[in-house]
Amino acid sequence: MSTKETSRWERQTWPELKRLAVEVPEAGIHLQKSRVLRREKDLPRLRAAGSYFDALFGEDPWYRELFSDFRELGADELPAGIASGCEFGSVCINTMLYLPWLVGQCRANGVAFRRGQVAHVADAAGLLSSPQHYDAGQKADVVINTTGLLASRLGGVADAAVHPLRGQVVVVRNEAPYMLTVSGTDDAADEMCYAMTRAAGGGTVLGGSAQRGQWESQPDANLAVRIMRRAVALLPELVPAGAGIGGLDIVRHGVGLRPARDGGVRLEKERVAGAWVVHNYGHAGWGYQGSYGCAERVVELVDEILSQPKL
């Protein structure tokens, strides 16, 4: 999550995600209460604001302004070892539904999709949807660079600040009573504890990790056990009484490589090898929650480019 100073994208995105959850069920987003817990032993680190996820756990978080139902949890609602916490009405996205829905929305608005390979970002200007246009040498006016993690390797970009934050999860059929995120774990500094139940039978995602610079795509069995143990300890409602992690009905194990970037998201225009490029990458784990705000800024930058005389 961003800091208050860089929260524009999330502030602009939240109203649209909430609208979709209420008005567009086919988008695969639903409303869900969220609880954020701050462990006592994490408070010195959180107050120093030194880590990627710390903004989420601020003791006076900027995002309290977004939610009319935001409240601090009472002492009687806090598990052992938790110094404080808050609760608010958020949303959870079933990405298996949401991404295809977005593709459909694009097609309904005249977007054409073309698959190709490029070694340099400027080459993408030639990948127009019509082979006739491509053969005639016509090129796009603007390239939007949303290459995520591979912005670190793409010609014309090769951003050395981009790196993976490896996240591992366990998806289970058990339902969580609310979305939960905890400020840290006793297992490792780059491991996390969170749980969220996706809409429309998407299962409950248990996490996780944030392993900087790790490209491994296969799940770690030992980490999976730690993830499940942490989830059951903090959310005993997930399983029948006394069942432990054996009470979890596992759907699958998953790994994702978050496209993080030192210095935060890169959202700017640039002239590269004769082509105008608008960069929009480096969102790490907050890409969905900042997506509409970032898209609005991309449109602003494209408009700036198109309003200039062509070179």
From TrEMBL:
The lineage of its organism: Eukaryota, Fungi, Dikarya, Ascomycota, Pezizomycotina. It comes from Diatrype stigma. The keyword Flavoprotein applies. One of its GO terms (biological process) is D-amino acid catabolic process. GO terms for cellular component: cytoplasm. SUPFAM superfamilies: FAD-linked reductases, C-terminal domain (SSF54373), Nucleotide-binding domain (SSF51971). One of its GO terms (molecular function) is D-amino-acid oxidase activity. Belongs to the DAMOX/DASOX family. Residues 6-301 form the FAD dependent oxidoreductase domain. This is D-amino acid oxidase. The keyword Ion transport does not apply. D-dopa binds at R258, G285. Keywords: FAD, Flavoprotein, Oxidoreductase. Coiled coil: none annotated. FAD binds at V118, T147. Its cofactor is FAD.
